């Protein structure tokens, strides 16, 4: 069974979690030549522009954002970290539930890489956006 992603809301818990995943976030940034560093992510988490979700063992970690457009809300997946037996595609149903609970009509990936498009049958990428809820 896929571990459950939980949002880390408590400041002390977020700090403790961040200390355990920061190096992985930085490695991801360097590996894919991203324009951000781990400290940028921490700042966005602290000011409330991004949200940290993780499995209890921290094998699965996601940083997401909520974006409002003139017509609807979108859930942006900024960072996905995974180690262990589960792939991020295994968490897709949870991501959809998070989006729906947040009132989002779309999920988008903040990257030029097509990870979810390759991993999840039927998901398509258009200009880095994954359309899934319609309307």
- What is the helix/strand order? EHHEEEHEHEE
Largest sheet: 7 strands, mixed
Total DSSP E strands: 7
Helix content: 25-40%
* Chain-averaged pLDDT: 84
Spatial separation of the terminal alpha carbons: 32 Å
> Per the principal axes of the C-alpha atoms, what is the gross shape?
globular
Model description:
The protein is of the alpha+beta class. It has one domain (6-131): Gcn5-related N-acetyltransferase (GNAT) (Aminopeptidase). It has 4 helices and 7 strands. It has helices at residues 11-31, 38-47, 92-101, 115-119, and strands spanning 6-7, 51-54, 60-68, 73-82, 104-109, 125-126, 129-131. The protein has a 7-stranded mixed sheet, with helices on both faces. Helix 1 (11-31) runs antiparallel to helix 2. The N and C termini lie far apart (32 Å). 21% of the residues are buried. The model is unreliable at 127-135 (pLDDT under 50).
In short:
With 135 residues, the chain is α+β, with helices and mostly antiparallel strands.
Spell out the key features of this protein.
135 residues, alpha+beta, Aminopeptidase, seven-stranded mixed sheet, 4 helices, 34% helix, globular, disordered C terminus
List the helices and strands and how they pair.
Elements: E1 6-7, H1 11-31, H2 38-47, E2 51-54, E3 60-68, E4 73-82, H3 92-101, E5 104-109, H4 115-119, E6 125-126, E7 129-131
Parallel strand pairs: 4-5
Antiparallel strand pairs: 1-2, 2-3, 3-4, 5-7, 6-7
Helix pairs in contact: 1-2
